[in-house]
């Protein structure tokens, strides 16, 4: 099924089409971490997880080759890591401790098995680094033209109420944990320098870029969001929280509208490149509000204050005009 | 973005590219059923569900245009219904009552909004008909070339142990609830008669087929599996159970290997077309084993007995050679 000239390094390797679904799964499962909450793992029609406090948190997100990643830039390990990281971050943003993932993967039949195993390794390493005890409890394998990862993640609120977007009150402190703008710089570098002379995403060019700007490119391809700080913020009394996925200004606007408040950033706290801090997406930091005069948990940094103006984002008291990412409007469809 | 000549009936309709993600979600959510277990629904980083007995069942499945469905044959409502039905069936096969779904949808930017709303309506009607009280608690929208639905489903074991594939014992009764072979006949009819003169899937030909063989085509496109009988079988003491998705022989083989037993079907119980009953997939009935001399719950029919031969499927005591479906080997990739 594979074209030896086009994929020389894979020519002697098994592809998905060479193996049965059962054989692929048998190679994947031993690489995946087991969840501490797992009562019944993969292999039956469904898994069974414990939910100690009688509730569970659930979120889902899909990553698709083209709109969401290019295989010329991301390694399979990057893909698994980022799929874990972004979903764990949504769980953490509720103030919950991530407990488990289920993972559906669709891939072309010509995909080398090493790609799927690399994704599995990235899922494992991402879970182990970002949320120890969180494991993969089930999944699904399908065929598709574009490599697709669909993740559902679960979390444990450990008896606490969830931290919603809607709880911020005027006078609260606005704080952030994690990186701000680095993933956006990394993506900008990849679009500008990670391409060949025709502008097509290039593995060779991306590798050169990684040699020179490894940390920034990694912030985009394999982010390290502060997952553990979600439950910490909840325990410290956070009044509202969300995951900063589409850029600080857009996500602050969501929190502001949900809470019926304004979010006023201090420009001095946004660093030298204010537009990048406000507009750069995919850092997956945590934006949270805390009661007035709170001492912030370690890892959070004050960015401003909650005001009474309903539903708007300000910088130094002046309204900020938003820009940002929309999955349908922003899509260029290039597979890469 | 749309080609008016190619899609005349959609030319004046909003597409996903015309609307923001928020606007699309605002149109979808009011159509979706709320889950009885929902503590916090869509709109935050994650949902929160109750898990009354301190556990929850979870399964996932992806449906992709081409390998899993053709838009020339399935209506958007069919897609939503089938996505619900197949996932609810995996929950039921554990002996659990389905409680909730999360739904990730990826679609081309040119997709008319009516397609997405039709899927939402199918999800709602499928949940309401097959598992009242089960709702959609969250989701994700992405861009992709191929329409893709990724569903994760949850269930409540209501204090019972899960019914595994591995619990069958020699002497147990083998029983089945639901249809057997109809979905396979429906698919065969579609492949043979639901195409134009060039063999390309055709909506017009499929509509003619639905006029004449509506029930068989519907068994394939919008199945009605016996979801409620999963918990009933569990309460009646089922020793093993699974969802028959890939055909009776293949799925009986899975149960046989997991339990270390043989499954011996009585040919008289398999009906006139034994090969179709054994080989036709996608009916999503429930194959279960019950202790010897059990009186079967209403809706289950005796198909044979569990024997001591490890890991094999028999008919009237003779080994049965399996055939069936593999997602990578069986794929033809035609989009339709």
TrEMBL record, chains A, B:
Coiled coil: none annotated. ATP binds at residues 139-140, 165, 245. GO terms for molecular function: ATP binding; magnesium ion binding; thiamine-phosphate kinase activity. Mg(2+) 2 binds at residues 61, 90. Gene3D superfamilies: PurM-like C-terminal domain, PurM-like, N-terminal domain. The keyword Hydrolase does not apply. It is an enzyme of class 2 (transferase). Keywords: ATP-binding, Kinase, Magnesium, Metal-binding, Nucleotide-binding, Thiamine biosynthesis, Transferase. GO terms for biological process: thiamine biosynthetic process; thiamine diphosphate biosynthetic process. Mg(2+) 4 binds at residues 45, 59, 90. Mg(2+) 3 binds at residues 45, 90, 243. Mg(2+) 1 binds at residues 61, 140. The keyword Metal-binding applies. It comes from the Bacteria. Pfam families: AIRS, AIRS_C. SUPFAM superfamilies: PurM C-terminal domain-like (SSF56042), PurM N-terminal domain-like (SSF55326). Residues 169-274 form the PurM-like C-terminal domain. Pathway: Cofactor biosynthesis; thiamine diphosphate biosynthesis; thiamine diphosphate from thiamine phosphate: step 1/1. Substrate binds at residues 68, 282, 325. Catalyzes the ATP-dependent phosphorylation of thiamine-monophosphate (TMP) to form thiamine-pyrophosphate (TPP), the active form of vitamin B1. Reaction mechanism of ThiL seems to utilize a direct, inline transfer of the gamma-phosphate of ATP to TMP rather than a phosphorylated enzyme intermediate. Belongs to the thiamine-monophosphate kinase family. This is Thiamine-monophosphate kinase. It comes from Cryobacterium arcticum.
């Amino acid at each position: 099924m594979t074209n030896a000239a086009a994929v020389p390094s894979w020519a002697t390797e098994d592809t998905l089409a060479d193996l049965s679904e059962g054989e692929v799964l048998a190679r994947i499962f031993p690489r995946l971490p087991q969840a501490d909450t797992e009562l019944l793992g993969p292999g039956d029609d469904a898994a069974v997880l414990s939910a100690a406090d009688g509730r569970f948190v659930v979120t889902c997100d899909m990553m698709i080759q083209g709109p969401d990643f290019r295989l010329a830039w991301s390694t399979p390990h990057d893909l698994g890591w980022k799929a874990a990281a972004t979903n764990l971050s949504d769980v953490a943003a509720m103030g919950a401790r991530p407990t488990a993932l289920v993972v559906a993967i669709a891939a072309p039949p010509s995909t080398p098995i090493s790609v799927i195993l690399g994704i599995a390794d990235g899922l494992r390493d991402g879970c182990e680094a970002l949320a120890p005890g969180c494991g993969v409890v089930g999944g699904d394998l399908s065929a598709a033209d574009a490599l697709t990862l669909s993740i559902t993640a679960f979390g444990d609120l450990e008896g606490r109420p969830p931290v919603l977007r809607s709880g911020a009150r005027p006078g609260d402190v606005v704080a952030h944990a994690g990186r701000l703008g680095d993933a956006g710089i990394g993506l900008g570098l990849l679009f500008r320098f990670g391409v060949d002379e025709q502008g097509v995403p290039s593995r060779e060019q991306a590798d050169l870029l990684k040699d020179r700007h490894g940390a920034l490119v990694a912030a985009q391809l394999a982010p390290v969001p502060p997952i553990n700080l979600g439950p910490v913020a909840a325990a410290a009394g956070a009044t509202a929280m969300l995951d900063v996925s589409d850029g600080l200004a857009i996500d602050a606007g969501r929190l502001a509208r949900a809470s019926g408040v304004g979010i006023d950033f201090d420009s001095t706290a946004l660093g030298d490149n204010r537009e990048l801090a406000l507009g750069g997406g995919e850092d997956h930091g945590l934006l949270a509000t805390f009661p007035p005069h709170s001492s912030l948990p370690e890892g959070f940094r004050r960015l401003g204050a909650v005001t009474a103006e309903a539903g708007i984002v300000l910088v130094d008291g002046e309204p900020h005009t938003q820009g940002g990412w929309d999955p349908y409007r922003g899509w260029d469809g290039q597979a890469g």
